[in-house]
Design goal:
- The complex is a heterodimer of chains A (360) and B (268).
- By secondary structure, chain A is mostly helical.
- Helices cover 70% and strands 3% of the residues of chain A.
- Chain A has one domain: ABC transporter involved in vitamin B12 uptake, BtuC (Orthogonal Bundle), CATH 1.10.3470.
- Chain A has a two-stranded antiparallel sheet. Chain A has a two-stranded antiparallel sheet with strand order 2-3.
- Chain A is globular and about 70 Å long.
- With 268 residues, chain B is α/β, with parallel strands linked by helices.
- Chain B has a domain of 148 residues: Rossmann fold (3-Layer(aba) Sandwich).
- Helices cover 32% and strands 23% of the residues of chain B.
Chain lengths: 360, 268
C-alpha cells in the first residue's frame, strides 16, 4: 500500500521536470542539438543583417557563390576533424594532426612532382596514383606511431602527440627543405594530384570532388561508429576504460586502431588539401590542430570521451567556416572571429559539463 | 567427516597460493561452490577474499594450485577465459559504460552482427535482436522498470545499474555468477531488490558466489558461508548452524570450528 503510494509520488516527481531539465535531457540524448541551434542562429543573423541592413558586404552572404565557397572551404578542417573526433571519443587528443597531414601531403607531392622541376628530391617523378597511396600509407603509419607510443608505453595522448607534432614538422622540413610545390610542377600528374579541387555545378551551386569525398568519409565513419562493434568499443573505451576491459574488450587494440584509422583519414585530408589549395606547402596548416579540436568540441563531443556524434563535428566545422565568412563579410576584423570561436569553445565545454550531470 | 555426496562442485579450488611480492594473498586456500547454491564469501580486510575471487574470475592467475570448473581443470589467463567457461563476474565498480545504453552494455564485448552480407562484409550490428534479448532478459529478472532499453545507463539508479550488470552476467548461458559487494552502494529498498534478484537467479539454477561485508544480508540469502582468514579458508558454516557473532568470531580468529562441524557438503 505505502509502496504503491511511494512509487506514484516518485513518478510524479520524475514527470514534473522543469523546462531546464527537459532541455538538459534533450541535449543529453542528442549532443549535436546545441551546435545545430548555434549554426541556425548564426545563419539567420547573418542573413537578416545581409538582407535587411546594410552591414559591410553581408548582402553577399546568402548568394549561391558564397555558399559554394563556404562549403568548399570546409573540406580541410572538416576531414581532419573526423580523425580528431574518433581520437577524442576515446578521451584522447591528437595535436599532431596538422603535422602528419603536412608530412603525408609533402610525401605525395614530392613523389608525384615532375622530375624535371627544379630543386626536387631524389624521389620525384613517380606515378601519381602510387604517390597518393604512399602518402596516405605514410600518414596512416604516422598515426600508428602515435597509437603505438600511447598503448605500449602508457603515455598520455597529449604528450605523445605534442612530441610527434614537433617530430613530423621537423621531418617535413629536414626531408623536403620547406619547398612549396606548385600545381603546375606536377605536369602530367596534376590531374590526379589536384582532383580533389576539381569542381562541378549543381544548379547555381559549385561543389568539389574533395567536398564529396569529405562527406563520404563522414557517412562511412558515422556508420562505423554507430553501426559496428568496433564503434561501440570506441565509445566504451572512451567512456570507461576499466569497464570496457572488464567486459572483455581489448582496450589497447581499440586505442591503437583508432590512431591508425585517424592517420588514414589524415592522409586522405592531405590529398584533399593539395586539391583545395592547388599546391603542396609545408606551411599550410600551422593552426589546423586547434581548429579541428575546436570543431569537435563545438560539435558537442565530450573531451572526456565516450559521448558525441560525427554529425556534431560536421556542424562544428560549418560554424567555424560560417563565422569566418560572416564576420569578414560584415567588415569586422579577423580578431572578432577568433574572439567568437573562443567564446564558443568555452561555452561548448560548459554545456557538456552540465549535460553530463543529467538525472532522470 | 568424509564428504559422501553425489554432487560435484561446479567450481573447485585446491591448495591455491597467490602472493604479491611479500604480501601473501592466498595460502593453500581451498574452495568449493556447488551447483545451484548461494555461497557467501566473508572475511576481514586482507583475509584474501578479493584475491580468491579474482583468481576464480580470471582477473589474477594463481601462483600454484589447481582450479576446476565442472570437474575440468582450467587455467584462466583473463576474465575472458573465465567467461568462456561460464564464470561471470559482476564487479563492485559494475563494469558498465555509463554513456552507452542498456542493450549496448548487456552486449558489450560480445556484440551480435546481422546475418548475411550486411554482417559479414559490413560488420553491421543486429541492434534489434540485441534490444529484444535485453528486454526479455531484464523482464525475466523482473527488473524492467526502466522506461526504455535504449536509455543510457548513467540515467539509471544504482539498483537499476546493478540489475543491468546482474542481467548481463545471467544472460549468456553462464553457470556461475560472482557478485562482488553488490549492495555496497545501494539504499535499503534497492538492496532488498538485488537480494531478491540473487534468490531468483539461484532458483533458475545458477550458482552464485556472493562477496559481502553485510552480515544480515549474507544470513538472508546464503546457503553456505565460506569464511576466509589469513589467506585460508577458516571454516564453511551455514546460517542455521552458526550465528552472526560466531561468523565474526571465526573471521577474527577468536573461534575455530572443527572440520566435522563445518558444512563442506552441499545443502541443496
Amino acid at each position: 500500500m505505502s509502496e504503491t503510494a511511494r512509487t506514484t509520488a516518485a513518478e510524479e516527481f520524475a514527470n514534473s521536470a522543469t523546462p531546464m531539465q527537459k532541455v538538459q535531457h534533450a541535449l543529453h540524448r542528442y549532443p549535436w542539438l546545441s551546435p545545430l541551434i548555434v549554426l541556425v542562429v548564426l545563419i539567420v543573423i547573418f542573413a537578416i543583417l545581409g538582407f535587411g541592413f546594410d552591414v559591410g558586404s553581408l548582402e553577399n552572404f546568402a548568394k549561391p557563390a558564397t555558399i559554394s565557397l563556404m562549403l568548399q572551404q570546409t573540406v580541410i578542417i572538416g576531414t581532419l576533424a573526423v580523425a580528431q573526433t574518433i581520437v577524442i571519443l576515446t578521451a584522447g587528443i591528437d595535436l599532431s594532426i596538422g603535422a602528419i597531414m603536412v608530412f603525408g601531403q609533402m610525401v605525395m607531392a614530392n613523389l608525384a612532382v615532375s622530375a624535371t622541376a627544379s630543386n626536387v628530391t631524389f624521389m620525384a617523378g613517380q606515378n601519381p596514383y602510387l604517390a597518393v597511396i604512399i602518402g596516405v600509407a605514410v600518414a596512416t603509419l604516422a598515426g600508428g606511431v602515435n597509437g603505438f607510443l600511447i598503448v605500449r608505453f602508457n603515455l598520455p595522448p597529449f604528450i605523445v602527440t605534442l612530441g610527434t607534432l614537433s617530430i613530423f614538422t621537423a621531418l617535413t622540413l629536414i626531408i623536403f627543405k620547406a619547398r612549396t610545390i606548385q600545381g603546375k610542377e606536377f605536369e602530367g600528374a596534376q590531374d590526379v594530384m589536384g582532383i580533389m579541387g576539381k569542381d562541378f555545378q549543381i544548379g547555381p551551386f559549385g561543389f568539389t570532388i574533395g567536398l564529396v569525398v569529405m562527406l563520404i568519409v563522414y557517412v562511412v565513419m558515422a556508420y562505423v561508429l554507430r553501426g559496428t562493434a568496433w564503434g561501440t568499443h570506441v565509445y566504451a573505451v572512451g567512456d570507461d576504460p576499466t569497464a570496457a576491459e572488464l567486459s572483455g574488450i581489448n582496450v589497447k587494440r581499440v586505442l591503437f586502431s583508432v590512431y591508425l584509422t585517424a592517420g588514414f583519414i589524415i592522409g586522405i585530408a592531405g590529398w584533399i588539401t593539395i586539391g583545395r589549395l592547388g599546391s603542396a606547402s609545408p606551411n599550410v596548416a600551422p593552426e589546423i590542430n586547434l581548429e579541428t579540436i575546436t570543431a569537435v568540441v563545438i560539435g558537442g563531443t565530450s573531451l572526456f570521451g565516450g559521448r558525441g556524434r560525427l554529425v556534431g563535428t560536421l556542424i562544428g566545422t560549418f560554424i567555424i567556416i560560417i563565422l569566418d565568412f560572416g564576420l569578414s563579410l560584415a567588415g569586422l576584423d579577423q580578431a572578432y572571429r577568433v574572439l567568437a570561436i573562443g567564446v564558443l569553445v568555452i561555452s561548448a565545454v560548459a554545456v557538456d559539463q552540465w549535460i553530463r550531470k543529467v538525472k532522470i | 567427516m568424509t564428504v559422501v555426496t553425489s554432487a560435484q562442485p561446479i567450481v573447485q579450488g585446491k591448495d591455491l597460493n597467490k602472493s604479491f611480492g611479500r604480501v601473501i594473498g592466498l595460502n593453500n586456500c581451498q574452495f568449493e561452490l556447488f551447483p545451484g547454491e548461494v555461497l557467501a564469501v566473508v572475511g576481514d580486510n586482507g583475509a584474501g577474499k578479493s584475491t580468491l575471487i579474482k583468481c576464480i574470475s580470471g582477473a589474477h592467475e594463481v601462483d600454484s594450485g589447481r582450479i576446476f570448473v565442472n570437474n575440468q581443470e582450467v587455467s584462466f589467463k583473463s576474465t575472458h577465459d573465465a567467461r568462456s567457461h561460464g564464470v561471470e563476474t559482476v564487479y563492485q565498480t559494475l563494469a558498465v559504460a555509463p554513456a552507452l545504453d542498456i542493450s549496448e552494455n548487456l552486449y558489450l564485448g560480445r556484440e551480435v552482427r546481422k546475418k548475411g552480407i550486411l554482417g559479414k562484409v559490413f560488420r553491421s550490428l543486429d541492434k534489434k535482436h540485441m534490444r529484444e534479448v535485453s528486454t526479455k532478459s531484464l523482464s525475466d529478472l523482473g527488473v524492467l522498470t526502466v522506461q526504455s532499453i535504449t536509455q543510457t545507463v548513467e540515467t539509471l539508479s544504482g539498483g537499476q545499474r546493478q540489475a543491468v550488470a546482474v542481467a548481463r552476467a545471467g544472460t549468456f548461458g553462464s553457470q556461475v555468477v560472482i557478485l562482488d559487494e553488490p549492495t555496497a552502494a545501494l539504499g535499503v529498498n534497492e538492496s532488498a531488490r538485488v537480494l531478491q534478484l540473487i534468490k531468483d537467479l539461484r532458483d533458475r539454477g545458477m550458482s552464485i558466489i556472493l562477496i559481502s561485508h553485510n552480515m544480515p544480508q549474507v544470513f538472508d540469502v546464503a546457503d553456505r558461508i565460506h569464511i576466509q582468514r589469513l589467506g585460508r579458508r577458516a571454516a564453511v558454516v551455514t546460517p542455521q548452524s552458526h550465528t552472526m557473532n560466531d561468523v565474526v568470531a571465526i573471521m577474527t580468529g577468536a573461534m575455530t570450528v572443527p572440520e566435522e562441524e563445518q558444512q563442506l557438503a552441499p545443502v541443496r
